[in-house]
Amino acid sequence: MIEDITFRDRKPCFIIAEAGVNHNGDINIAKKLVDAAVEAGVDAVKFQTFKVENLVTKKAPKADYQKETTGTGNQYEMLKKLELSYEDHIILKKYCEEKGILFISTPFDFESVDLLEKLNIPLYKISSGDLTNIPLLKYIAKLNKPMIVSTGMANLGEVEVAIEAINETGNNKISLLHCTSNYPTNYKDVNLNAMNTLKNAFKLPVGYSDHTVGIEVPIAAVTMGACIVEKHFTLDKSMEGPDHKASLNPEELRKMLLGIRNIEEAFGDGIKKCNSNEESSKKVARKSIVARVNIEKGQTISYENITFKRPANGISPIFIDDLIGKKAICDIYMEDPITFNNIK
């Protein structure tokens, strides 16, 4: 059950496809996003739940990236077009269940938390913007479900305050996501090492929420120990809306998923040994001690009359000290392997 997952050292990595508001307020587009997430093979598809009246003032300005992608106006006007109704949520959750993918959503206000609780979602994702919204954090924490908390724009002190607020409710099911809240994020601003700073500072499961334009950084995050990866995706980057341009298209999402799973498989067990699939290579790639020239019976083996060549069908060069000074007990022809049966 997902309720029991703490995400600590989770393998394989839990991958969230962030649909966010890329449905543009259209339930049919939202369903297509679910289909794309299922096809990619991710663990969960995540939306955003909010009542615009509870989220922003009517004069709240847009972020710079939102101005670039949606033009003039304010946040209220922009977000009002991207709101999903309670009925939409019911449809989406049921659709996800039919498709066999986990439905989750980020609530941005108290009313939205209540809506999601009616749907009995198994965990809560907290946006970076609400890291300092202590009343909302406590309201969600009291539900005693796992909380994945994004930490964009935050310093360690602010993260610590958020964790303490959640813990005060008795909820310790916390995971942290490092992220940079810029859309898109330049590679030089990613600061991926901060993910492990969070892990070392708070001894909690950590992951990464990515806003770069590519797939390299999420894959790199997994190699650094991320147990959760979240990535925005869209059906078409050219669609109207604030987040499409900084999102992956379905094919890119599939490639990211494949890259992460390939890397995870490549981790192995850490034991340094000859892999069973290397045995045939070892026989042809390693060398044996062979006769450099014809060696007559009774002749002493020396560096002058031997050399080292493939394949490994004779004595390994690792035993050279045991060989030098021995005598041939029979004629050994040039390029024949030296064996312990033809020397003494």
Distance between the termini: 67 Å
CATH topology of the largest domain: TIM Barrel
Name of the CATH homologous superfamily of the largest domain? Aldolase class I
How much is the average pLDDT?
94
Q: How many strand units?
A: 10
Strand order of the largest sheet: 3-2-1-8-7-6-5-4
Order of helices and strands: EHEHHHHEHEHEHEHEHEHHEEH
Domain AFP-like: 288-344
Keywords: Transferase
Protein name: N-acetylneuraminate synthase
GO molecular function, one term: N-acetylneuraminate synthase activity
In short:
By secondary structure, this protein is of the alpha/beta class. The chain is 35% helix and 14% strand.
Question: What distinguishing features does this structure have?
Answer:
344 residues; alpha/beta; TIM Barrel; Type Iii Antifreeze Protein Isoform Hplc 12; 2 domains; two-stranded antiparallel sheet; 13 helices; 14% strand; elongated; transferase; EC 2.5.1.56; NeuB/NeuA; N-acetylneuraminate synthase; PseI-like
